[in-house]
Structure formats: structure tokens, C-alpha cells
Amino acid sequence: MDEKTNKLINDALHNNLTHLEKYDIDESFGGEHPTYFEAESIGEIVDYVKNKKIKAMLLFARSDCAICEVKEAIDSIEPYCTGTCVDGGKMLFGASVEKSDGEAKYRMLLLFEQPQPQAGSQKADDGFDEDVPF
């Protein structure tokens, strides 16, 4: 994991208004490697996730962010989440208890559902190239 991801996990576990355990993070991401993302506004977050389906998420807000802003961010992201994320307890969030100058307003770890190939959309590989003379 990169430095920003490690700092976010450390902040979520040790500098968070919401109590999270390492187990919560491990359970949410199931050993998969989430994508790190940061933004200054809810609009930036929505633009980033709008064509994806989120399987698991950790949203962490800067200490000067009002609780209503965190709630608004969660509400804005929820339509892009799978049922597993929302109802399966894989949506984690928190806010920093320490002054966090220089950090983005929102920092996130996101695990996206991989799109499944459509049936019949891929050509079967029969081992032959096109236009092969016999």
C-alpha cells in the first residue's frame, strides 16, 4: 500500500471521531486492494464514482468538515454503491479529531465492482486468424 493509503488507515483507526477497528477495514475490503482517492468537494467525489459501482468504501473527512457535510457526502455517494456496500456494513466513514492542515477535505478508499463481460459480446477464440488461406 502507498503512503497516503497507510496514513488514511492510521487516521481512521487512531484519529477518528468514529470508533473503527482494523477488523472493520479488513472485513470491508476482504484482502483486495482498494483505490485511494481524495477531493475537496462532494461534486469531485460524485464525478469520480458516477460510472462505477462501489463494493466497499472508507470515507474520511478533515477535522474542519461539519458533520452535515459528511452526511451529505455519504448521501451523494450511496446511489453508486452496491447493496453489499450499503446493507453489508462495508461503508465506513469518519472524521479527523486532529487538525489536518494540508490534507484534502475528503480522503477515501474505494473498492469497485469489476464490470462483468456481456454474454456474446466477446468473439470466441477458435485459434484461427481471419482470412487464413487453406
Tell me what the structure shows.
This protein has helices at residues 3-14, 22-29, 42-49, 67-77, 83-87, and strands at residues 35-39, 54-61, 91-95, 106-112. It is of the alpha+beta class. Strands 1-4-2-3 form a 4-stranded mixed beta sheet, with helices on both faces. Helix 3 runs parallel beside helix 4. The longest helix has 12 residues, at 3-14.
Layout of helices and strands:
Blueprint: H1 3-14, H2 22-29, E1 35-39, H3 42-49, E2 54-61, H4 67-77, H5 83-87, E3 91-95, E4 106-112
Parallel strand pairs: 2-3
Antiparallel strand pairs: 1-4, 2-4
Helix pairs in contact: 3-4
Pick out its properties.
alpha+beta; single chain; 5 helices; four-stranded mixed sheet; globular; 19% strand; 134 residues; 33% helix
Oligomer: single chain
**Secondary structure tally: strands:** 4
Q: What's the number of helices? A: 5
Can you tell me the residue ranges where pLDDT is under 50 for at least 5 consecutive residues? none
**How confident overall, as mean pLDDT?**
86
**SSE order in H/E notation?**
HHEHEHHEE
Radius of gyration: 19 Å
Briefly summarize what is shown.
This protein is an alpha+beta fold and 134 residues long. It has 5 helices and 4 strands. The longest helix has 12 residues, at 3-14.
